[in-house]
Amino acid sequence: MPELSVAIFATDADQRAVLQALVDGTSVGHTVCANSTLPLSSTDPVLRRTQGFAPDVVLIDIAADQVASALRTVELLHQEIPATSIFVVGAMTQPHLIVSAMRAGAREFVERPTTTTDLLEAFVRLTASRRKPGRESARGKVFTVVNAKGGNGATTVAVNLALALQSIHPSTALVDLAHIGHCALHLNLKPAFSISDALTNLHRLDASLLDSFMARHERGLQLLAGPSVPSAVDASPSDYARLFDMIVGTFHYVVVDASSRLDSATRLASNLAEKILLVAHADVASLWSAGRVAQYLGETGSRDRFAIVLNRYRKIAGFNESETEAAIGAPVLWRVPNQYFVVSSAIDRGIPPMQSGNTEISRSFTALAKLLTKDDMEMKRSAWSLFRTV
Ligand SMILES: Nc1ncnc2c1ncn2[C@@H]1O[C@H](COP(=O)(O)OP(=O)(O)OP(=O)(O)O)[C@@H](O)[C@H]1O
Ligand SMILES: [Mg+2]
């Protein structure tokens, strides 16, 4: 993740110091100036000085007794330095304030009191949104796979999707975020290292060290394995942000198997993702959970990137897909056929269906990978036709 320069505006000295410490503590943002006054006109020297820094983000604290002037500052900065993203910090208990700040041009409303995680998640969303299709970027696309309910098939989907993506682009990584990782078993790999090693060596992690922590599957897919015992590594969301920064800077496609892990690490991987694939079964308990999981992961603004993958799908009388989509708030993107014998024997042998030939289930994952990378193909095609006309 590129480092973000941040200008802070907070009239209260303590709050200013707290915000500066939090911004610098994310290790993604760094404070370029911390101002004690709120500029209210375009000739204000504080505004000019801020413009000189061309910050990526301005963070404006909205103190309870200064709502009107803080909102005026939001409007002014939005007008005067439109390339800068405005984050405001205020009380979530006042919906009117949130709406007014957003209308004035704020991009993010961060709760007060603020935590490093809140800020980090907002920074990650900003950098992820700058990587939308159409923008030139050398950074990889992330697909995060999460279970609606334990055992719904996240690992099966992640492993086979990663192999299918690998045959589309040779630079594909699978990151096992589960507390006890199963991806290595599915792929019959015996990794010497795991994600815990990468997290404990962040201070010296570069592309070649990352590579040495990964296991290579015979099809070329690189796996950053999950721990084989519950990990003693106590990594913060900032640590995960730095790790993912390195991974998306190295690989073209990154599949994250979060399985049933629901915490700030999965939230971070979801915030970074192009698509969050919620793996569910077409039964009441799983679909009910899918809604809760989407709510938890989408709390910080990523709802529009959720897609449901119905695993072990077969037609069920009375199952209404559009009602399901409305209840969960995400579309059903894909249906993976129910093939218990093929899938369970593949796991037993460590040879995923994607590797073992042309079956209904391997065709399903190939088609899912094509769908998820459709835009990339179209961009490639248009670049090619442009080339031909020159
Ligand atoms: N499409 C499918 N058809 C039939 N059986 C399947 C399918 N997908 C997964 N399964 C079965 O479901 C079981 C769980 O699969 P998997 O290990 O992928 O789940 P998981 O959701 O990642 O589990 P966990 O919650 O433990 O991480 C496996 O034993 C597998 O045989
Ligand atoms: Mg799993």
Shape: globular
Rg over CA atoms: 23 Å
Order of helices and strands: EHEHEHEHEHEHEHHHEEHEHEHEHEHHH
CATH class type of the largest domain: Alpha Beta
The bound ligands are:
adenosine-5'-triphosphate, magnesium ion
Q: How many strands, what sense, and barrel or not for the largest sheet? A: 8 strands, mixed
Account of the 3D structure:
- The chain is an alpha/beta fold and 390 residues long.
- It has 2 domains: 4-129, 3-Layer(aba) Sandwich (Rossmann fold), CATH 3.40.50.2300; 141-372, Rossmann fold.
- 45% of the residues lie in helices and 18% in strands.
- The strands form 2 sheets. Strands 8-9-7-10-6-11-12-13 form an 8-stranded mixed beta sheet, sandwiched between helices. The protein has a 5-stranded parallel beta sheet with strand order 2-1-3-4-5, sandwiched between helices.
- The longest helix is centred in the last third of the chain and has 16 residues, at 374-389.
- The radius of gyration is 23 Å and the shape is globular.
- Bound molecules: adenosine-5'-triphosphate and magnesium ion (MG).
- Adenosine-5'-triphosphate (ATP) is lined by residues 147, 150-156, 178, 182, 259-260, 311-312, 336, 338-340, 343-344, 347.
- Adenosine-5'-triphosphate binds next to helix 6, strand 12 and helix 14.
Q: What's the helix and strand layout?
A:
Layout: E1 4-9, H1 13-25, E2 29-35, H2 45-53, E3 57-61, H3 67-80, E4 85-90, H4 95-104, E5 108-111, H5 116-129, E6 141-147, H6 154-168, E7 172-176, H7 183-186, H8 195-200, H9 207-213, E8 215-216, E9 222-224, H10 237-250, E10 253-259, H11 264-272, E11 275-280, H12 284-298, E12 306-313, H13 321-328, E13 332-337, H14 340-349, H15 360-372, H16 374-389
Parallel strand pairs: 1-2, 1-3, 3-4, 4-5, 6-10, 6-11, 7-9, 7-10, 11-12, 12-13
Antiparallel strand pairs: 8-9
Helix pairs in contact: 3-4, 5-11, 6-15, 10-11
Magnesium ion binds near residues 178, 182 and 259.
